[in-house]
Request: fold
Amino acid sequence: MRRREIVLGIPWEYFKDFDFTQLGFKCGLEVHYQLNTKKKLHCRCPAKMVDGEPDAATIRHMRPTLSELGEYDGTALMEFKTRKEVVYLLYDEVVCTYEMDDTPPFLINREALDIAIEIALMLNCHIVDEVHITRKQYLDGSIPTGFQRTAVVGINGYIPYKDRKIGVRHLTVEEDACREVSDVGHRITFKTDRLGIPLVEVITEPHMRTPWEVEEVAWMIGRTLRATGKVRRGIGSVRQDINVSIDGGTRVEIKGVPRIGLFAPLTAIEALRQKALLELREELLSRGFTAENMEFRVMDVGSEISELICDALSKPIKSNMKFKMVEAKGWDDLLAFNVQPGKPFLHEISERVRVIACLDRLPNILSPSLITSITPDEVQWSKFLKKHSVEERSGIILVWGDEDDLKTAVDEIMIRMREATIGVVNETRQACSNGTTDFERILPGPNRMYPDTDHPPVPISNEHIKGIEVNLPERPWERAERYRRLGLSEHLVNELLDSKYQDTFDRVASEVAVNPTIIAKALAEDIKWIRREGYDTEKLSDERFVEIFRAYERGLFPRDILPSVIIMTIEDSRSIEVILREKGIEMVNKSEIASTVREVIKANNPTHLNNDARFRYLMGIIMRGLFGKAEGGKVAEILKDSLRNLSYR
Ligand SMILES: [Zn+2]
Reply:
């Protein structure tokens, strides 16, 4: 009859070679970067995050109002259904009456606006003649006004990528929302320090065709913004949303993805989730289901619930929760249909119940379609279902909670199951660390924007734009091209683009005649592990690096000990020559190397080994003796010659 265990999902190996272009994979990015300004965007509070106890707190409630067109917004309704109480933690130092919607906005922060223009120009955008402040509806409580002030600064830009262009639809400057502290039951709590900090939002066209392209383009956008030196760095300063769709599916937004490293798995799994939901839809249609004719029976479950003895139910039973059972005719085992790795369709239902009915203790639903070690077993279920005269081919969901939440939950279960006949639902989802996603909210309706009557338009003159344009930093793809011409590998080019030592590299490479690859490797790679080893690499100035590579250029030490020399110069501020002399680091000449090689061969020549092994063995001994005194390459050359001569004898 029903499946007995979770069918664990699609392994990474499966979609590594999957052809996503065939699915009609489409993805666009919405990238938010906080700007490094002194003040907030629409008030004069300092733009910084604070820790510690709040100075005050206030509680508000959300209520939907009819729009001018006489409709309720879908998201607004959903938020209302959750009956949330919103708590704002206030800090005197960084919050004024503007953030709490008690006073109108100040004129827009010009510093922030200029940074936004600069970034828009970097992304080849056309800059608007006049900036119009707009209100963007924000109903999750993270902005007390219920809207965010936002303004388009640039439109129709692009980033060159492979042999094509990734379109940048527009770039806006806007105010950041509150930080969520907790969201438990019917109470959500926010910290207000972040509220109002300026950020830019870069929205690309859905031009990425595979999960891997999404990742590469995201890196490129990040590098472009960081190249200005005017965006904030660190945890929470960057937030990225990804829009994914496939043919026949719909745009689903994955919100707040913290790491670019998650982009490929997240978008791959979302594409396959949509594919699975479309398959589920086909199956439902083939069974003759539509959203209208789907048949449900909702049953009250009383004291007989105690017959289902299992870990998942012991607590709800003890705390006298109410129980209901939803029977969906003809669903059979489709509830266990896998839509994400380890997440069957039941999980989609459970998520809706969690978010909308606020039943957030998991598991919040149980079904005989999914039997695990904490659920009732098959025998218990079968007896129980017989008692309730449930049809053999029905899908069953058991749910519990207090009376109000339970009613919302039962409705939501039926809504989600009906929606399965549509296929993919337009919604926002949150990223999980394993690459899967969970439901977050229904996507807002299209009328989310309306003009802000509190703020006059801000004209941007051509002269002003030109003034910013002449000082634009080098774009990362231009820099990459320059590095490629220096002979750096693609790997090193990318490492350097993400390194804060790229300007140092430029300086050293232009002043010292050392192979650029050696410089790049030291600055983009070695320096990272030196830092990880606990050395304070911040102490090294560009001048110091020039000095180190000059010494290397003059042959004062071999390449093998370049990282050690860097470490020595962190701890010792004297000149490199003095340090090297004191440590006894001195290069030996060719004839000295040759005589060391001869001695070592004489003393230990393992003739029983084959040529390769013998070479490696001897090389090891010789380099231990000559470490810091000779280039490994040169030693290898001499050793090879000597061994060849030996074998001729
Ligand atoms: Zn303020």
About this structure: The chain has four domains: 26-245, 285-429, 476-582, 590-648. The chain has 21 helices and 23 strands. The two ends are 81 Å apart (CA to CA).
